[in-house]
Amino acid sequence: MTRDLSHAEAVEMLPDAALDVLPADEQTAVLAHAASCPECGPALAVLRDAAAYLAYALPQMADDPVRRARVRTRLLARARADLAVADVPAATTGPASAAAPDGGTDRAAGARPPAHGGSARRARSAGGSAGGPARPVRPTVLPWSVAALAALAAAAVVFLSESRSAREIQRTAAESEATGLRAAALQDSLVARDSVLNQLTGRQVSAVRLTAGAPEAPWAWMFWNHATNHWTLLAHAVPAPPPGRAYQLWLVTPKTRISAGTFTPEADGSAKFEATYPLAPDSLRAIAVTEEPAGGAAQPTGPLVIQGVTGSVTRGK
Amino acid sequence: MNPPDSDAAYKMRMAAAPTRAEDRELVARLSAGDDAALAQLYDRWSRPVYALVVHLVRDGDDAEDVVEETFWQAWRQASRYEASRGEVGTWLLTIARSRALDRLRSRRRLREEPLTPVLPGGPESPAGLVDAGDDPARRVESAERRDLVAGALRTLPPEQRQVLELAYYGGLSQTEIAERTGQPLGTVKTRTRLAAQKLRDALALLRSGEGGGRGGAATVEEAGR
């Protein structure tokens, strides 16, 4: 528990806090005081700035461009996933899987059904600035929200049952049920987003960019989590397929083309597709999306929509 | 107290002004969700951030993780950055050091590592200067800033300089510094505070070159959380 500091105590400890040499509880107490004190906040900022300048006096290490490049790749993949997760509807649109020519297993077992009737709304962090990057909201808040909604609805029903007509009670009960369903749907979509985020930001995740070559053409990122054999495709600007047709995802190896399943895009051209399929890390040559009959095809037969080759794979460590 | 080298500080402020403005622009773009700005900010600052982190954690793999988390935190908290409260570089370095200390202290708890900080110029200190990047202006800025800060450190009494170096470069807490130096904890606290205040005064000109006021809500302290 954080103890409260007097202003005089906090002032005395500001230099220590700036250098981060205090025990954790005292550091937290000083920061808490500084966050709300108009005198200590700026004073701590000045001290911290001065301390940070000490980094420039280091006889620094020789540069390690390989490590820095590796971190850069991971960092940008996380940032793009961060943006993509917030921009792409959570609902999966395609059927679970199509033919599996080399084994017959359901390779799209990880695909989720649409979440409660279609696209989830865009989740924006309440703490973000206007126009700032979209942040997936953590779902831990929602159980409380659902419980609170349920409690309010129950209280409302009890109250109304004593003072309103039976019709009003029924209407209120229906509204509360609908509210509960909406809250549950929102909770599901946030849990799904959290799951996607975990799949995209792991240490053993490769990213492959799929393009069609034209500026306005469809494009996508495929994230391959080697630790879980989980594949996540996030696509954009995908036109609606002709009636009776769907898009089919293929993992291309030296020996075969493996169907990962079929999908259709949302009305805004975005699509998210997930599948679980084990594949040796060095056996992937390319990833492709073709247009096929709605039920999928055993081998690619339709026009190529987008593709990415393994040369564009960026992999975490 | 006057700065140790006001001429050098002046020259550095003049040279650094455009790059500082560019840094602030990049952070503004970060807060708007521009991942290209994140790439540029990383390219500009990953060298000094990596150098500080690897000096503290002394493990390349750990340093990689900490550097990634540093810029990830910058990405997530860019909207909280306020230019009036300090330059982007010190904001990033504060985040980096805080995350590095988290890693270092966690590792010490898990492995019961001995407290053997590596200080600048010490026998275990890594040799060679870091490549300050491809931008000549940044190389000049980095070199002049290094001279200025080293000069400020030289103005401190040896006992104050020692606790400051053990704290900042060694990542030791005051209790650990007391154990290592054999000095009473109260003495260590007094020396730490005096050293930090003198450093603040000695480097005041660096901050005065940033433009903007000193007011506003806390942001630098958030970086250390």
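qc> Chain B has one domain: 6-210.
qc> done
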